[in-house]
Amino acid sequence: MKIAFIGAGKVGAAIAIHLANAGHDVVLAESSDGSASVAAARARSSKLRAAPAAAAVADAEVVFLATPYGANEGVLRPLAGALRGKVLVDCTNPVGPGLSHGLESKRSGAAVVQELAPEAKVVKAFTIYGYENLDAPPPPACALRPAMLFCGDDAAAKSAVAKLVADVGFEPVDVGGLAQALHLEHMTLLWIRMVRAGGASPHTVWARLPRG
Ligand SMILES: NC(=O)c1ccc[n+]([C@@H]2O[C@H](COP(=O)([O-])OP(=O)(O)OC[C@H]3O[C@@H](n4cnc5c(N)ncnc54)[C@H](OP(=O)(O)O)[C@@H]3O)[C@@H](O)[C@H]2O)c1
Fold first, then answer.
1. Which of 36, 51, 60, 168 could hold 4 in an S-S bridge, CB 3.0 to 4.6 Å?
2. Is 78 part of a structural domain of the chain?
3. Domain region containing 28
């Protein structure tokens, strides 16, 4: 699958490397004056290509958004046309003061992303853990795969993202429509408060127990 990343920092680079290793054609969007994170990611994997954002998006079937939440408006507005009909994976989290929800829980960050790219098929995914788990998901030998919860309104887009979630090493768990994104964003805050503020292991993950 042809995949573009806007944002290749801790989150974007980790996912991009796994997907390139799984055989996908992965390109990282870089700014006109170069991008330190794109160069660093490409130093970690020679499979990653780089291209200007508009070209990267135009050529992709799936686009990952892995930028700081506050950058989303400036990033997405000029690309809204190019994103028409594409799967847009929202990896961003609006985090406010004191590890609160950055939009005061009035609406989800994913709803704002959908508004900024109205004709993209937005799926919120890869957000509920810190980057440490994206860098190194538990090895395949583990009996239980860590769950990656995701949501979106387009069934075909979610099916494509579910495959990518599995390629990175997680059990895909579809939790419903994009209206569920607010709850995923709160789940992220739960994890961040436990780990970043509370001292729990950054390799804390959730799993779904099969019941016969
Ligand atoms: N860190 C985590 O554990 C974690 C986990 C899950 C989700 N998230 C969410 O994922 C997103 C990315 O987090 P991160 O930790 O990967 O951040 P990061 O390491 O700081 O990387 C941010 C990336 O966005 C790019 N960027 C920044 N401002 C930009 C702009 N105005 N236009 C275009 N690109 C821009 C940066 O490029 P340059 O190198 O050119 O600056 C870099 O590639 C955030 O929304 C965060 O809430 C984070």
1. 60
2. yes
3. 2-197
Q: What is the CATH number of the domain that holds 167?
A: 3.40.50.720
**pTM above threshold 0.90:** yes
Does any domain span residue 209? no
Contact 26, 16 (CB under 8 A): yes
Q: What are the pLDDT tens digits along the chain (212 aa)?
A: 999 999 999 999 999 999 999 999 999 999 878 899 999 999 999 999 999 999 999 999 999 999 999 999 999 999 999 999 999 999 999 999 999 999 999 999 999 999 999 999 999 999 999 999 999 877 767 778 999 999 999 999 999 999 999 999 999 999 999 999 999 999 999 999 999 999 999 999 999 988 87
Q: Which amino acid is at 188?
A: T
CA-nearest residue for atom 21, ligand 1, is 9
204 lies in a domain?
no
Which of 5, 6, 10, 126 to mutate to test ligand 1, by most ligand atoms within 8 A of the CB atom?
Answer: 10
User: Which residue is closest in CA terms to ligand 1's atom 3?
Assistant: 130
